[in-house]
Every structure is written in C-alpha cells, then in structure tokens.
Amino acid sequence: MPADIPRLTRSDAARPEIGIVHLGLGAFFRAHGAIYIAEAMAASGGDWGIVGVSLQSPRTRDLLAPQQFAYTALELGPDGERPQVIESVQDVLVAREDPAAVLALMADPKIRIVTLTVTEKGYCHEPSTGALNRTHPDIIHDLAEDLPVSAPGFLVRALAQRRAAGTAPFTVLTCDNLPKNGHLVEGVVLDLARAIDPSLADWIATRGAFPACMVDRIVPATKAEDVERLAAATGRLDLAPVMHEPFRQWVVEDRFVGGARPDLGTVGVQLVEDVTPYEHMKLRMLNGTHSSLAYLGYLAGHETIADTMADPVFERFVRRLWQREFIPALTPPQGVDLPGYAEALHARYANPAIRHRTWQIAMDGSQKLPQRILGTLSETFHAGREASGLVLAVAAWMRYVGGIDEAGQPIDVKDPLAARLRALSDGAESPEARVDALLSVHEVFDPEIAELLGPRVTDAYRNLLDLGARAATAALS
Ligand code: CS2
Questions:
Q1: Residue 2 binned pLDDT confidence (cut-offs 50, 70, 90)
Q2: Which of 117, 280, 341, 361 is the pocket-test mutation for ligand 1 (most atoms within 8 Å of CB)?
C-alpha cells in the first residue's frame, strides 16, 4: 500500500446532536442502519447522531477514531463499485474499558433510541425458547454487579438510571436476525429487571417500547485487499470500510417512546404495525437458505455463496428449498409475491462481486437453526408434509459441528456451544448415536422437533457420510 495516501477524515458538515446509542457496532449496522439514519437526517434533519458501543474489542474504535468516525460504505454491484462516505457515527465507546461511561451516556435524556446488533448469542437467551438464560456467566455477573458486561445488562442498568433520574425510557430497537426480535429483547430485559427490582420491570413494561424490525442487506467481511483497492480508487485511506450489496430493506414496527425517531419513512424504511410476516419471509427464505447453503456448500468445498450457487447441484437445491419447502409454509406479507422474492434472492446470491464466505455464515449455527430452519420443519411435519432438503441441511450442520471436513481436515467451528457439540459428536459410537446426542441439545432442539427429526435426520446424516455433501444433495428426490 503506498504510504503517502492521506487518511480519510470527516467533512466540515455540521454535526447533529446525538440521539442514538448503538450497542455492538459491527459491519452490518454500519452498512445498513447507520446509512438509513444518515440519509434520514440529510432529508429531514433531526438530532439522531449515533454513538457506537463495542461491548468487548477496541478494534473498531481504534480504526475509526483517527478518521473522526467517518468511514466508507462500498456498494458491490455486479457491474461495479460505488463508494459513499458515512458520517452518522460520531463516537465509539468500548464497554469493557469504561462501562460506567456507557451507562452514563445511555442514561442521558438526549438519547432516545438504543439500537442493537449484538448477534444472536448477545441476548443471552435460550434459542429454542427465547427465554433469558439465567445460568449464562454474563447474566450471573450482571445480576450481582452494578457495572454490566452483557447487552441486556446495559439496557436494564441504564433504564434503572433513567427511572431514578425521572427520565423517560429510550426505545430499544434490536436489529438482529431473531424471531420476534422486539418481543425477545423485551422478554430478556424484563426478566433481568424483575430479578434486580420488580418495580423497575413494571416501569419498563408500562413506559418502554421494543418495536420489532426486519433488517436485510448482505454484508461480507471486509478483507485487506478491499482496503487497498478502495484507497487506490478514492485516494483516501480508510482502514475500516464496510462492503455491501446494492439491495437493502428495513421494515420497522412504528412504536417508539413518545413517537421519537428519525424520519425513516422518507428514505424507504417500511413502517408497519406488525413485522411478523416480513420477518418470517426473510429469516426463512434468506437466512434459512443461507445457512443450508453454508453447511452443505462448505462441506462440498465451496468457499463462498456465489461459488456454491455456481454449482448446478446447489442451484437446484436452493430453488427446491424456496419452491417446495419454504413457500408452502409461509403466509406472505400483504402485496408481496413470494416466488418473485425468491427470484430476487437468487440474483443477490449469484452476485459475483460479493465474496460472502460459507464459513462466515456457518458461524453460531446453534443460535440460528431454530428460527431459520427448525420452525419451518415443525410446521411442515404438522401439516403432514416432508421437507427433505431442510432435513439434509440440519444433518449437514451436525456433520459440520463434528469438526472434520470431508477431506479429513479440521473445521474451525465458531459457535458458543462448539466445545459441547464437538464432545457429544466425538463421544458417540455410531452415526445414529451421534445424531441422537446432538438432538438432545435442548438449547437448539425442543423435545418435540427432536423427536420428529430423529429418524429423518439419521437417514440424511448417513447419506452425507456415504455419499458426501454434493452427491447427497444431488440425490434428493
Ligand atoms: C447471514 C446474514 O451471516 C449470516 O448468518 O445469513 O448475515 C445475512 O447475510 C443477512 O441477514 C442478510 O440480511
């Protein structure tokens, strides 16, 4: 990289006041919510500057601070790239370094919304039920100490400070890919608050707001070569750019404390009463096929989703999942044509400019499987139908968390339950016993779905062992 390229810096444009704290400032929010919010302020004004909070690592803060928190969002289209400098983030705090400063900020009356992208595991809940996991080490810590470490802990302690100061609660807007995400975060916050002070829980339940939303944009991890290419193209060195596809969608339930929010409707955010049909469509048809392609594609030796889609076996497979397995189990949002939605997804997945690694999507499967795949399977079996493509995807997850790929090489499995899943897999004496052992992980499989899946997944798992992922996928009837 030429050493003389000057660093990207913030423009002289006037800064709005801050109004939003974002917990978990990763690439996704910077490539999605932060852009919508920047556009909403540009279009309609409002004091909605964002302070990001990294719960653990100082990395994003350290990269963004010398750029005064400006960064480039690089759109990767099939026909070329388009950079855009985003300035809605005004500061980043690192919670591990100074949790009291984060709480003080969240308690400030200027802050009216707290948005979150802390990933599925950041809510410290049980994925199969959605309830707070009271045995989670971070929750045990946050029950005992005033200075929290978990996202639910920060929300509850900050809301307690606001209540003590006579300040209205902030709206909690989770932007993670979870089922009924608003309801889920409300549940974990109220559970934790109740354990600390029942009257606090009552105050939050009556005065607070936890709108659900559906977020969508494919954001592959930024690579060193992306940084170099961008610097060469723009003449500015940005050490923390984000990469994203052209498509974006944000559907938000319009329930904010005091109605206070940026003018999101002006910039294409859909404001609705009930997000559930959008959420089901997206979590299943997009994230469900993403995870299925990730496990099977990885095992078949494909590095990215676009590579997997370029393999005719998997292209047929994903069409089958949409047409025969997901769509029959869905109620479309009003005015949405699900086959058309599937076609659009097909084009997005095939975009060769997006190098979205199967390994990246395979991460944290224990937290993703229930809402992405198991819900559809349960509804399908109850309706007396079968969904053998999705059953094969569950078997592929089991093969993947076993930690050895088809060439006998180790897999770097990233999952909060990785060690336990590996031990269960290694401890089983036969493929049948391995499937049974993994189905007993109640955080992922509730007893009913475990029973329904038992014989079906065992057959699929055997096929994976006997034929390999590609041939087992090709053999689906
Ligand atoms: C992906 C999502 O990594 C994953 O699990 O399925 O991040 C996906 O790209 C987004 O939800 C798209 O909106």
A1: low
A2: 361
